[in-house]
């Protein structure tokens, strides 16, 4: 049986976090020198010792468009593929690639379907918080396990389902929803495009237990906040 390394960051309980700001040229240059912070969740950087040596490593940025993480991997001489469903995020990725003259394979696709990669294609998968837009999150974990090489690593961020109990703005400390949560289906088409689709809560059983069921071994875990705490 394939055994891959699983490392997760749990997305916390508050609102915030900006996933559509591409890295600056200055940050890219720092990445060339091995100086970088990477984020699976809004505010707490991924521990540096979670990363395998990146030079020559095949890395998949799963739902990781936006020109934030994958250009840093490319700066470390990794062989990088980014896979995302959002045209806007992929355009930002393309902009950074062209600005820096880096090499990243950019693929648009739906991670709720079978991923368009052969078995054991990647050494590492970097998967920031995003599977709240997928109905069957266990499918995502199974596909990650399938396309990782033996001994490969999945670094994944996901949302604490308790987040979805609460409202937004003035109501962010008030329980307004029940679990499991399935978005607000009364959103207009424009609102759905802006938010990326209807969000879904996933239990820790399907998030963590689903990863273990797929064949991963949990090595490390940390918690973060969804809203900056003073």
UniProtKB/TrEMBL annotation:
Methyltransferase type domain boundaries: 61-155
Domain of life according to the entry: Bacteria
Record flagged with keyword Cell cycle: no
Entry annotated with the keyword Lipid biosynthesis: no
Keywords associated with the record: Ubiquinone
Name of this chain's protein: Ubiquinone/menaquinone biosynthesis C-methylase UbiE
Species assigned in the record: Cytobacillus purgationiresistens
């Amino acid at each position: 049986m394939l055994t891959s390394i699983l490392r997760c960051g749990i997305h916390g309980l508050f609102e915030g976090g900006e996933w559509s700001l591409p890295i600056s040229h200055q940050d890219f240059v720092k990445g060339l020198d091995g100086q970088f912070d990477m984020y699976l969740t809004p505010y707490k950087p991924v521990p540096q010792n979670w990363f395998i040596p990146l030079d020559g490593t095949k890395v998949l940025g799963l739902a990781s468009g936006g020109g934030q993480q994958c250009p840093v991997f490319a700066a470390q001489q990794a062989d990088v593929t980014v896979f995302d469903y959002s045209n806007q995020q992929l355009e930002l990725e393309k902009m950074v690639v062209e600005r820096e003259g880096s090499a990243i394979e950019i693929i648009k696709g739906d991670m709720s379907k079978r991923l368009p990669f052969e078995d054991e294609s990647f050494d590492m998968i970097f998967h920031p918080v995003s599977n709240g837009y997928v109905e069957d999150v266990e499918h995502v974990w199974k596909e990650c396990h399938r396309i990782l090489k033996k001994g490969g690593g999945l670094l994944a961020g996901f949302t604490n389902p308790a987040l979805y109990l609460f409202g937004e703005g003035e109501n962010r400390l008030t329980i307004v929803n029940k679990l499991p949560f399935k978005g607000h289906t009364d959103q207009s088409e424009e609102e759905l495009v802006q938010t990326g689709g209807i969000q879904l809560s996933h239990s820790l059983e399907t998030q963590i237990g689903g990863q273990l069921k797929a064949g991963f071994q949990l090595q490390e875990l940390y918690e973060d906040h969804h809203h900056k705490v003073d």
